[in-house]
Amino acid sequence: MSATKYQEYQQAFNKLQKLHKAKGIQRIKPAGS
To answer: Are 20 and 28 in contact (CB under 8 A)?
Structure first.
């Protein structure tokens, strides 16, 4: 995988994580905690 492709992937991943956090952190927490 090229460095630029990897950076693009990371940016998209970060955007998804921010969306999930905005929707509700409770859903991300493991059931055990």
So the answer is: yes
